[in-house]
Amino acid sequence: MPEKVEATNAEISGGQATSRRKFMGYIGLAGAGAALVACSPQNPPVVELTPAQQAAKQDLEILNYALVLEYLEAEFYNLFAVGGKYAANLKLDDVKKYAAEIAGHENSHVKVLTDTIVSLKGTPATKPTFDFSPLIGSKPINDELFLALAATFEPIGVRAYLGQVARLTNPALIAAAGAIHAVEADHVSAVQELRVKLGFNKQPNRQTDIAPQSVAKPTSLVAGDFDADYSPTPTAFWKALTMDQVLAIVKPVIK
Amino acid sequence: MTTPTPNRRSFLKFAGAGAGAVMLGGVNMTALAATTVAGKSKQQDIDILNYALLLEFLEEDFYLKFADKGALRGKLSDARVKTYADIIAAHESAHVTALQQTIVSLGGTAITKPKIDFTPLVGDGSKLDDKAFLALAATFEPIGVRAYLGQADKIQNGDVLTAAASILAVEANHASGVQELRRQLGHTPANLQTGIAPQPAGGETIVDTSKFNLDYSPTPTDFWKPLSMETVTMIVGPLLPK
């Protein structure tokens, strides 16, 4: 991208350091979509964009970023929902119910984001190939692991949306992103209170605004350093995550 | 609604007071109800923040009554329920402080805390217990979610928007944590999928809390539906005596 365009984007983003270049790098690596590759530094636009075009472009980039995260969440929950590869690994009815309900929500988010991108004349990112084995390791795939992973993904979703909401320029998108943002927060707390009941959460009152990042390593983007044991109502104010941070977190599960 | 002895008469009386400017806690809600996407301005941001502050005053007052050292603490018995009262009260107090400071930083004047009267919802308080407390929490929190959502696209200042979104998620945390706890305690089957909780299915215009449905799932929807200032005002108005 020409430097001039970068500067314009930073301005639109309200001062938040734009992470688009890296975003493109990650998504390009992940093979997540021709549209995004078309914006990569190797293919600078021939025509300079107007501020309105820049704004629309930034919105589409954010929507595609959200889409990749929702693809990830949808795939994870679909694995454990009825018909999924690991559905039989869940034994508790309460846990199965959450797998089904949350899978339904994430699939719906994928569809709405895809439709929205198309309606804005953008190209939706294609679904990456996910591999959750780095998170699963040698742990048994059961109710406890499912809930622990859900309690890891969901607050990342909350904080990822929070990091983008003020960068969206189209008010209709702000409203829609806000609606999804709150849904991710619902998932966090429902799952976490269930973990408390089942005895899986050893710190049921722990307050933190950076979940699932830990107290010991608060800036780490490595899932192995995370701590999924936090209060279901963990904070008065969530702290946002940038695109850079989120993409670094999820990169290990994107093949 | 499952709260004890709701005072229907005072609710309906308020709901009937349609004509003229509706003043709540020193805020002209009728004027506020005119916030728009097209009318984004610093003044509109301040109006929205004062509206949010009014709702947070209400929530804070409610939870502090049940929190440690609160007047109604003795009504709670379950340890987990007490923990929820303490944690959520602290969050709502933090929201009040942050909103006040933000309003001042924008050059506005924060509203003062209004008189708040929960009698329409709790009667004389004699029937309050864990179950009633949680039911009220499950009433307020999704209204908070939807009230913030109704304003998000009308906020001009990016920092204010991010702060509001952060609180929006916190209200959703409260709604879902409380609702999962209610389910565990056998207070509700918590099996409804709905984007308009606590309003009943198809009841987006219903503002009478006695008609609300608190059996929504802790993960109730894929997309929350916003509430307008006007509707929120109608719902909480009875708790804010003139």
Automatic annotation (TrEMBL), chain A:
Pfam families, sorted: Ferritin_2 (PF13668)
InterPro entries per UniProt: Ferritin-like (IPR012347), Ferritin-like_SF (IPR009078), TAT_signal (IPR006311), TAT_signal_bac_arc (IPR019546)
Protein name as annotated: Ferritin-like domain-containing protein
UniProtKB/TrEMBL annotation, chain B:
InterPro entries: Ferritin-like, Ferritin-like_SF, Pigment-catalase-like, TAT_signal, TAT_signal_bac_arc
Entry protein name: Ferritin-like domain-containing protein
Keywords, in A-Z order: Signal
Signal sequence bounds: 1-33
